[in-house]
Write a structure and sequence with these properties.
This protein has eight helices and eleven strands. The chain is α/β, with parallel strands linked by helices. It has a single domain, classed as Carbamate kinase (3-Layer(aba) Sandwich), CATH 3.40.1160.10. The chain is globular and about 50 Å long.
């Protein structure tokens, strides 16, 4: 396998499957199956998941809610998703740990970097919930931050699109896909990969990002084996 330790970033919306909101157990089971394939090949797996299928702090703020309050609600939504994913992974026979940036001792360990690394070394899948624990930061930023902290080899951003395009492929039929990009290319072309804070943190720490279609069966294994799937952003 090309990558020994990965940080997999999943969007909350991805868990909806074909639903309008909430969590689709079928989609959860599919993701667990994909993750199990790389787990069995010895890849150490950390996961950060968004909360957009339940609540978005930004959209709450746009509707008149206090932004900080909304962001904390969004963090709790990521914990719910983390618990759901944890259950699916354990049903598939994997050992997991859920660590959260906000203390919720009844259901999760507090985030401790050394403990997280030890879990990974022992072959446990570590799910990081509650973002960074601070308002005004996205789960993309949390993913890169945790990836840097636990010395991940790569950030794998699993989306419903198969890479980075010249324009939004869902809106522009003429959009073409990039196979590889440098961090500088992304900035020059104004491409939307992650929010600016997350992207800058990844660039400063020379941590590559691969954007790929998580919903296509077998893609996660191919990415970890080093096949050219999706779009790779590196130095």
């Amino acid at each position: 396998m090309k990558y020994k330790r990965i940080l997999l970033k999943l969007s909350g919306e991805a868990l909806m499957g074909d639903r309008q909101y909430g969590i689709d157990p079928k989609r959860l089971a599919e993701y667990a199956s994909e993750i199990k394939q790389i787990h069995e090949k010895g890849v150490e797996i950390a996961i950060v998941i968004g909360g957009g299928n339940i609540f978005r702090g930004v959209s709450g703020a746009s509707n008149g809610m206090d932004r900080v309050q909304g962001d904390y609600m969004g963090m709790l939504a990521t914990v719910i998703n983390g618990m759901a994913l944890q259950g699916a992974l354990e049903d598939a026979g994997m050992q997991t740990r859920l660590q959260t940036a906000l203390k919720i001792e009844a259901i999760a360990e507090p985030y401790i970097k050394r403990r997280a690394v030890r879990h990974l070394e022992k072959g446990r899948i570590v799910i990081f919930g509650a973002g960074t624990g601070n308002p005004y930061f996205t789960t993309d930023t949390a993913a890169v931050l945790r990836g840097v902290e636990v010395h991940a080899d790569v950030i794998l951003k699993g989306t419903r699109v198969d890479g980075i395009y010249t324009a939004d492929p869902e809106k522009d039929a003429s959009a073409t896909k990039y196979d590889t990009l440098t961090f500088e290319d992304v900035l020059k072309k104004g491409l939307n990969v992650m929010d600016t804070t997350a992207f800058t943190l990844s660039q400063e720490n020379e941590l590559p990002i691969i954007v790929f279609d998580m919903n296509k069966e077998g893609n996660l294994v191919k990415v970890c084996e080093g096949e050219l799937v999706g779009t790779t952003v590196s130095v």
